[in-house]
Amino acid sequence: MSALPTVPLGGEPVTRLIVGGNPFRGNSHRGETMSRDMESYFTVERIKQTLFACERAGINTVQARGDAMILACIREYWAEGGTMRFIVQTASELRDLHGHVRHLARFGALAVYVHGTFTDRRYLQGDLSEVVDLAKTIRDAGVAVGIGTHIPEVIQQVEEQAWDVDFYMACLYNINRECRESALVGGQEVDEDHLFDHDDRFKMLDTIRQTPKTCLAFKLLGAGRLCESPAQVRKAFATAYGGIKPKDACVVGMFPKYGDQIGENVQHVREVLAGDSPALNSTKPGT
User: Fold this and answer.
1) Is residue 246, in this structure, part of any structural domain at all?
2) Quick one: residue 65, left, alpha or beta (phi over 0 = left, psi -120 to 50 = alpha)?
3) Are 220 and 252 in contact (CB under 8 A)?
4) At what angle do helices 152-160 and 200-210 cross, to 10 degrees?
5) How far apart are the C-alpha atoms of 215 and 208, rounded to whole Å?
6) What's the domain range around 53?
7) Is 281 within a domain?
8) pLDDT reading at 283 higher than 60
9) CA angle 84, 43, 253 (to 5 degrees)
10) Which of 17, 46, 156, 252 could form a disulfide with 269 if both were Cys (CB 3.0 to 4.6 A apart)?
11) Which residues touch 75 (CB under 8 Å, ≥6 apart)?
12) 65: nearest Cα among 120, 22, 101, 23
């Protein structure tokens, strides 16, 4: 199948739909049952199969955390002929994050970004100096530099202070209004339903439009909370793509155990980007 439309990042064209890696590591944001289902499904073989299926469907980029399991999967996938580009989230649990960044660059990452929850915790504590230092290390490592966040004000502050970054990994839901640790770092699954306010999307979309830098919008489906029907999924895609800039892309996790999420998501994106969606230009609150 032909590739999806692309935007430039790190000197390479990346598709405007990027497959996200949270499901690969059982990070569902939907509770322990769903997380364990993802974790048991996504063996190394199934992760590679999913990447090849995404590639056949027209996606050319994967985003995932840079932990040992994911790196092993990507290494095998590339060795077996896979060609997808790799955007990597720092693994915040590691002791030497600067050495970790340098390793990711040598590994073959197209871009590296500072984990959003890591960023947000420092922002809420009033000191982003660690994030600044990591961004500098990413730049020195020779790959595209990104800042991940769930909080629109983080992007606004980074822009005001003119940090040397190339892109933002921008969550459409502000699930970090208070300091929290991700389940993969803290090792504890918590009920997160109360953290997902659908109106959050419009504040982050407005922030994304205001920055000239490339943004990769994620959680556009509310971690599965906007998937009750194909029409609802389509509207969520249309709202996200209608709210970001033409140079931006969206990151969506795929969990094909119960259906062809890859094919369905790609079809939604092709139709939305072709303008075949009544909600394409909708930026008003609501679902």
Assistant:
1) yes
2) beta
3) yes
4) 20
5) 6
6) 6-273
7) no
8) no
9) 50
10) 17
11) 107
12) 22
Mean pLDDT of the chain: 90
| Cβ contact 192:138 at 8 Å | no
Burial environment of residue 78 by CB neighbours within 10 A (0 to 12, 13 to 18, 19 or more): middle
Rounded Cα–Cα distance for residues 38 and 42 (Å): 6
Indicate if the pLDDT at residue 282 is higher than 60: no
> Which residue type occupies 264?
E
CA 200 to chain centre: 16
Return the ∠ at Cα 270 (arms to 218 and 50), rounded to 5°: 60
Specify the CATH number for the domain of residue 221: 3.20.20.100
Alpha-carbon span 136 to 155, nearest angstrom: 17
Query: Could you read off the pLDDT of 203-255 as tens digits, one per residue?
Result: 999 999 999 999 999 999 888 888 899 999 999 999 999 999 999 999 999 99
C-alpha separations of 178 from 6, 89, 207, 244, 267 in Å:
35, 21, 20, 26, 36
Q: Which residue has the tokens 């790959």?
A: 143
Residue 132 lies in a domain: yes
Q: Residue 284: inside a domain, yes or no?
A: no
Helix (H) or strand (E) holding 68: helix 68-79
CA dihedral 168→171→174→175, nearest 10 degrees, is: -120
Cα 140 to Cα 106: distance, rounded to the nearest angstrom: 12
Let me know: does 170 contact 207? Beta carbons within 8 Å.
yes
Task: Sort 46 into a burial class: Cβ within 10 Å, 0-12 / 13-18 / 19+.
Answer: middle
- Closest to 63 in 3D by CA, of 31, 99, 35, 27: 27
- Total length of the chain: 287
What residue type is 98 in one-letter code? H
